Amino acid sequence: SLDQQIAALSPCDLVLVEGFKASPIPKLEVHRPSHDRPLMYPDNPHVVAVATDVPMELPLPRLDLNDVEAIAGFILSHQGFR
C-alpha cells in the first residue's frame, strides 16, 4: 500500500508520488488538453492545484507546467515548508 511504501522511507520530510488517484492525499494535477483527457478536478476533492500548459480559469491555483521553480515553490508552501 502507499502508506507502507511511505513508512519505508521514514524519516523524511516530503514524498512525491505519481499515480494513486483514488488515495486521499493532496494532488497537483498535471493537465495537458492536447492529451484529450478530462480534468480530475473538480470531481477529485484532493486536487489542490493544476499545472497546465494552457490558460485556464480555475478557482484553484493554476501553475505553468513549464515553470518548475513555481511548481516547487507551491509544493513547499502548500506543505508548510515556507
Present the secondary structure layout.
Blueprint: H1 2-9, E1 27-31, E2 47-52, E3 62-64, H2 68-78
Parallel strand pairs: 1-2, 2-3
Task: Summarize the structure in words.
The protein has a single domain, classed as P-loop containing nucleotide triphosphate hydrolases (Rossmann fold). The protein is globular and about 40 Å long. 5% of the residues are buried. The chain has helices at 2-9, 68-78, and strands at residues 27-31, 47-52, 62-64. Helix content is 23%, strand content 17%. It has 82 residues and is of the alpha/beta class. Strands 1-2-3 form a three-stranded parallel β-sheet, with helices on one face. The model has no long low-confidence stretch (mean pLDDT 95). The chain is built from two helices and three strands; from the N terminus they run αβββα.
Could you provide a short overview of the structure?
This protein has a three-stranded parallel sheet, covered by helices on one side.
Number of helices: 2
Main pleated-sheet profile: 3 strands, parallel
Helical fraction: 10-25%
Task: Give average pLDDT, whole number.
Answer: 95
The secondary-structure element order is: HEEEH
Uncertain spans, ≥5 residues at pLDDT below 50?
none
Number of domains: 1
Query: What coarse outline follows from CA principal-axis ratios?
Result: globular
User: How many β strands by DSSP?
Assistant: 3
- Kindly name the structural category: alpha/beta
Radius of gyration: 14 Å
Classify the beta-strand content into a percent band.
15-25%
What CATH architecture would you give?
3-Layer(aba) Sandwich
